[in-house]
Design brief:
14 strands, 4-stranded mixed beta sheet, alpha+beta, single chain, about 250 residues
Length: about 250
């Protein structure tokens, strides 16, 4: 599944001893773990084997949790130590005993995925498929072109800088850029102003890192005490969809 140019996948709770093409095996109730794809293309052996019908709700990213930074917890800047982000970028906070309701935010490269499966083999059912469930042999795998889904551009509009903990626009943009760089999520590509109290920072997210880049932007602006009532964030070309600091 994809969202704003990023890609995520559900890992099922079983492994098969041969390639299969049997839709009944791939029911959503067998989903084990959701992960974000962290790479510049699918592995060379990737094959589009079959299509599974999903409901609109099943096509959405599940709510994912991540532990807040230690400094956020120590300064009591968050109400609970774990931040949950929904598919539409809404954030809320939970205690450790509530984590079972959500997926952990996980980024896998192909090698990471293989390593995870090997380390948790005892958690997967091993299925030996019937002959009628087997996929057709692949005589020659087509050359798979690697791709990097383009990142989106976020437009950040700020006003009332004098009320923030950092009042210089260039310094604010540098803080955002450093956060993005630390998480390999993108970079600041423009800084400017249209009026005396309307300031703009443009951020381009790295391929497949749209959600991560937005989280970085929000984290910095909240840390610098940006006013949520006068701060707008939106995807370039989609000005009708205001994301804000929530």
């Amino acid at each position: 599944m994809s969202i704003d140019g990023g890609y995520g996948f559900w890992l099922y709770d079983f492994l098969t001893t041969a390639r299969v093409c049997e839709p009944s095996l791939f029911a959503p109730d067998r989903w084990k773990k959701f992960f974000n794809f962290d790479g510049k293309g699918f592995p060379a052996g990737f094959i589009d084997e079959l299509e599974v019908d999903l409901t609109p709700d099943q096509k959405l990213y599940p709510p994912e949790w991540k532990r807040c930074f230690d400094w956020e917890i120590e300064r009591k800047e968050v109400p609970a130590p774990f931040r949950v982000t929904t598919h539409d970028y809404v954030e809320f906070y939970v205690e450790e005993d509530q984590l079972g309701k959500y997926q952990e935010e996980t980024f896998f490269k192909p090698k990471d995925l293989v390593a995870y499966v090997k380390a948790n083999l005892d958690q997967f059912e091993i299925i030996t498929p019937r002959e009628d469930q087997l996929a057709s042999p692949v005589e020659t795998l087509p050359e798979v072109a690697t791709f990097s889904p383009p990142g989106c551009i976020y437009e950040i509009w700020l006003s009332g800088l004098e009320q923030m903990e950092m009042t210089d626009l260039e310094e604010i943009s540098e803080e955002i850029d450093e956060e993005l760089e630390e998480h390999e999520a993108g970079e600041v590509i423009g800084v400017g102003a249209t009026t005396e109290d309307q300031h703009n920072i443009a951020v381009e997210s790295a391929p497949g890192m749209n959600r991560k880049a937005l989280a970085c932007i929000r984290r910095v602006l909240k840390r610098l005490k940006a006013n949520p009532e006068t701060t707008d964030i939106w995807v370039q070309g989609k000005a009708d969809k205001k994301l804000g600091l929530k």
